[in-house]
Amino acid sequence: MTALGRDAMLAPLEAALREANGDEAELWVHRRRSAITRYARNEIHQNALADETHVQARVVVGRAMGIASANSLDPAELRRLVADAATAARESAPNADWTGLAEPSPVAEPRSYDADTARADAAHQADAIKRITAAVKARGFRAAGTHQIELTEDSLANTKGVARYAPSTMAYLRALVTSDTGTGWAEDLGWSARSLDADGVASRAIEKAALDRERTQLAPGDYEAVFEELAVAEVLRFMSLTGLTGQTLRDGRSFMKDAIGEQVTGPRFSLWDDGLDDRTLAIPFDVEGTAKQRVALVERGVAKGVVHDRQSAKWFDTRSTGHAADPRRYGVGGHAGNLTMAGGDAKREQLIRAVTRGVLITRFHYTNTPDPKRATMTGTTRDGTFLIEDGRITRALANVRYTMSALDLFAGIDLLGPQRLARDWWSSNGMGSIVCLCPPIKVSRATITGSSPI
Amino acid sequence: MPERDSQLADLVDLGARRGAAYADARHVEREFEAVSVRDGEVESVTRSGDRGIGYRVLHRGAWGFAATDRVDESSLRNTVDEAFARAEAAASTRAGHVTLAPVAAQRGEYRTTLVRDPFAVPVAERIALLRAADANLKGPHAVSRRGSVAAYRTRKHLVTSEGTDVRQEIVESGAGVSVTAVKAGAKPAQRYDGRLTRQAGWEFIEHLDLASRAARYRDDAEAMLDAPLASERPTTLVFTPEFLALLVHESCGHPTEADRVLEYEVAFAGTTFMWPKDRGALRYGSEHVSMTADATIPGGMGTFGWDDDGVPAMRTKLIDRGTFVGYLTSRETAAALGMPVAIGSARAEGWQHFPIVRMVNVSLDPGTQSYDTLISGVEDGLLMESPASYSLDDKRQNFHFSTQSARVIRNGALEGYARGVSFQSLTPAFWGRCDGVADDWELHGFLSCAKGEPLQLMRVGHGAAHARFRDVPIEVRG
After folding, report:
1. Do B124 and A91 touch (CB under 8 A)?
2. Which domain does A400 fall in, by range?
3. What is the pLDDT of residue B281?
4. Do A339 and A199 have their domain in common?
């Protein structure tokens, strides 16, 4: 896959904007070339590549907004798109809340792009999968999963002189290994295909699948627990969506409402949003063209603030932190999508050794929040849920349902491991855009509210 | 970029000449228009569209797929090359060949029947409708109000190497209103519905009566702020058709998707607890529970002429008087499970997506008693009005739902509200508690059932009537 490059992605926008007819106008392009190879029962069953371009025009006429989008960078189509947005603006009505488009400002260089990754082809992806399935078959197990290579290019220009461009790449490899008695999961994620270790993924997933035998059911109750990184990312997702944005704070739905500066969880928990960290997947500006900033959210358990886009910045009489979200996915009011949680140096064995009687959770499936104000998450575990007794894993468990406030969970952090790039179930499956650098943790209390059948 | 007349046939011919056992080319053009109002202000008027070609080959026993939004000769050649390269890479991992259940070559056109084209409704009329609804969302504690109307048009042309050549034009209309009420010392209350969609014209939006609906949502949200906590106990629950539409979707629609049986979705959406050996034997629910997949229901969001395998729309039973009997299948999954015909459930969200097994309109069949009779049989229980949070396990066997709004039922009549209600259950245990379904069946539409990689958001329909469930243990959270 080849990047179109800065000129091809920006010049047509600037040309179309020169002919824009309105008070303010903006064009944003998101081009994505995504190669997804899916395998199941040790064989590739879907192997697809899609090359798509999304172009969005926003035109403001007398504080009324018109939006039009299409999927072509052809100059004539771009001109038509801007004209369509202007027509929509004239048909609309003035919005007293309108903030104006972003002004030019310095922006960091993109850091999440690797040309070799962009060039990875179908054979490269199949080879990685063959390494996994060979190891899995040797154990008599079967594997399923995904190998994804994605090249994206974002560009944005507006009539105030903002001109942005950033390429990025993403590489993802996951394996679900199934034995006759259970399952095990492992994955690698990064902006370079070099960060994918097919042998390591296979080995970790096999190890868990082999342990997952003779399951027993866990009675509901409070338990000590080890949450691995994917499980932590799942909890962070709900903190983000329910509490870390200007919109939720304004609505009074955020746990931060009337609590900024207050202790909201335990002192071992710190969280910030940083799209400029070169370990994460991000570009350095948001969909309004605002440069991204690092935002402290919770420091040592004390609520510090939320992220803003231009709309929520206006509500709170502050400046945008560069957290406007793709409007196809999230609403207005900010989106904290590059979360970093402070980690520690405890090794996995140390986390497990610290548990007298509790549960190890690898990851969750189809979670949700029955109590958004407390950032409460409920969900069932899968692909590696184990009973820990006296500091060691003793039994495999049937999947359990966990239901608990994130604030209560993180109040009980005893130990933290090193950070790793991880995504929640929703984001890893394309239903969200939250990437976390987060550690595995050992907590003193996790609430289990039910069990699936064995 | 309108598609050239022979473009798809040329691509399919090229696939056959290069040795593909099967090839299809699908041109899809989508249009979308929306108007949204937030707190009385027009937030935006949005128009969007996209178009492109998806190209699929079955080569050396494996699928390859590539899609592009550029249709110059060079881009299309690259797309064909990429599809073959992907099929070859997939074939290098396979022991067996993909086979397809047979279907006769199809020719024809399908169009949504509509009274008034929603794209032709003046924007000013749409804004006026939303502002009238917004005015009714205002309440003493309403801090956030939103409303929107939307129109969707999809034009699709499918050509296959087996002689199928079908065109479809599908138009959908939708609306949504929501209100958030906040009061000091009380849990915030939200009331919304994002599933007011129908394959129909503007007449459906008028039928919704958004202004009255907004007033009801405002009253519900205000009442929930002050409502007493429900008491935690096993109780009788009556569900609205709206709530059951989601329960049917999550606990019957998904686990009867045949690709879950083949573990194609095991690493993402999960598998099922309804295996082939269970067909005709598994007790899914009580004798009151029958469920049907039907892609022919007028107005359904899962209604079409042909699926993306070119299989004509049809109707099939999934649950028959409590017993699991059928699956949703594509040509590939039907053949893999040894079924003689596919039931037409291969669907792709857009041109850029590979068709996978999706729901069509999957519905709870209506009963014969009236709603009044159903509710008169409740001495002490709750009416669950609309779902809030929901969470399912990877087999669709263990679920947890909470509700936006619950009404107290006492001696067969509604009286007041209760808050904090949620419930978790195993699927067969839940449907086994159903002791009555009313005759007030109605159709609901979902815009964004999520499945597949890359993610595909699919329109699906679900019909249901009020239904009553006995002795359901509920959880209560303050």
Report:
1. yes
2. 214-454
3. 97
4. no
Q: For the domain that residue A13 is a member of, what is the CATH number?
A: 3.30.2290.10
Cα separation, A94 vs A99, whole angstroms: 12
Q: Do A51 and B45 touch (CB under 8 A)?
A: no
What's the burial of B415, exposed, middle or buried (CB within 10 Å: 0-12/13-18/19+)? Answer: exposed
Which residue of A37, A380, A402, A447 is the best one to mutate when testing the B interface, meaning the one whose CB has the most B CBs within 10 A? A380
User: A63 in contact with B at a CB cutoff of 8 Å?
Assistant: no
pLDDT band at residue B477 using 50, 70 and 90 as cut-offs:
confident
Under 8 Å CB-to-CB from B30, ≥6 apart: which residues? B49, B50, B51, B152, B153, B154, B155, B350
> What is the structure's pLDDT at B3?
61
Q: Residues B209-213: what's their mean pLDDT?
A: 97
For A14, phi then psi, to 5°, come to -65, -35
SS3 B11: helix
CB B422 within 8 A of CB B441: no
Q: For residue A370, say if its preceding peptide bond is cis, omega within 30 degrees of 0.
A: no
Most B CBs within 10 A among A60, A71, A427, hence the mutation to make, goes to A71
Please indicate whether, in this complex, the C-beta atoms of B455 and A430 are within 8 angstroms of each other: yes
Q: How far apart are the C-alpha atoms of A192 and B7, rounded to whole Å?
A: 37
Pairwise CB contact (< 8 Å): A253 & B180: yes
What is the full DSSP assignment across A279-348? TS---SB-TTSPBP--EEEEETTEE---B--HHHHHHTTS---S-PPPTTTS-SS----EEEE------H
Residue with tokens 């990437």: A435
> Do residue A258 and residue A109 come from a single domain?
no
Nearest chain A CA: its distance from B331 CA (Å): 14
Smallest Cα–Cα separation from A439: which of A359, A344, A369?
Answer: A344
Question: Does the beta carbon of A181 lie under 8 angstroms from any beta carbon of chain B?
Answer: no
pTM: 0.95
Q: Which residues of B touch A379 (CB under 8 A)?
A: 391
Pair (A271, A405) in one structural domain: yes
Helix (H) / strand (E) element for B197: namely strand B189-198
* B288 touches B464 (CB < 8 A): no
- Report the C-alpha gap between B7 and B157 in whole angstroms: 11
Q: Which amino acid appears at position B317 of this protein?
A: K
Verify that A131 and A274 share a domain, yes or no.
Answer: no
Q: Which residues of B touch A41 (CB under 8 A)?
A: 262-263
Geometric angle at alpha carbon A309, from A250 and A69, rounded to 5°: 120
3-state secondary structure of A411: helix
The string of DSSP letters for A378-402 reads: EEEEEEEEEEEETTEEEEEB--EEE
- Nearest residue of A to residue B76, measured between CA atoms: A51
Helices A75-91, A6-18: crossing angle, 10 deg rounding: 50
Do A16 and A143 lie in a common domain? yes
Mean pLDDT of A297-316: 97
- State the pairing for strand pair A338-341/A435-438: parallel
Which whole number is the average pLDDT over A315-336?
A: 95
Q: What is the pLDDT of residue A195?
A: 95
Specify the CATH number of the domain B7-226.
3.30.2290.10
- Domain ranges for chain B, please list them: 7-226, 234-476
Pick from B42, B122, B354: CB nearest A93: B42
Spell out which residues of chain B touch residue A42, defining contact as CB-CB under 8 Å: 93
Cα nearest neighbour of B67 on chain A: A50
Chain mean position to CA B46: 23
Mean pLDDT throughout B227-238? 95
Residue A430 confidence class, pLDDT cut points 50, 70, 90: confident
- Around Cβ A299, how many Cβ atoms within 10 Å? 15
DSSP string for B384-405: EEEEEEEEE-TTS-EEEEEEEE
- Give me the pLDDT at residue A93, please: 85
